[in-house]
Amino acid sequence: QVQLVESGGGLVQAGGSLRLSCAASGRTFSTYAMGWFRQAPGKEREFVAAITWSGISKYYSSSVKGRFTISRDNAKNTVYLQMVSLKPEDTAVYYCGADRGRDNYDTLSTPHEYDYWGQGTQVTVSS
Q: Each residue of 39-91: pLDDT tens digit?
């Protein structure tokens, strides 16, 4: 069992930055690939970024590539999402997920492949 708690969301102006954190419980965190997704009102949950258990491979959606950076610290059981050059269209609830399946883009970009989810943190970018 893995419990995930996101933090770091908030209100920021366009062009600003935020760093989201996702703290995981359990001693098996390092065996899970981790992903960030987001969901805006009336829209489906959308893939943002993912990182394999080792941290060697990282994947990004085209809409955030070059602006967002995913990283993890297995010693702290935490995964991060550094977001810069934020845009109003980045406004959403951001969720982190843990996946013990295959470490490839097709799996890690698909919400239903994830085993555990956090409760989400709101990110609002004003224009």
A: 999 999 999 999 999 999 999 999 999 999 999 999 999 999 999 999 999 99
Burial of 58 (0-12, 13-18, 19+ CB in 10 A): middle
Burial 88-124 (b: 16+ CB within 10 A, else e): eebbbbbbbbbbeeebeeebbbebebbebbbebbebe
Return the structure tokens found at 78.
């935490």
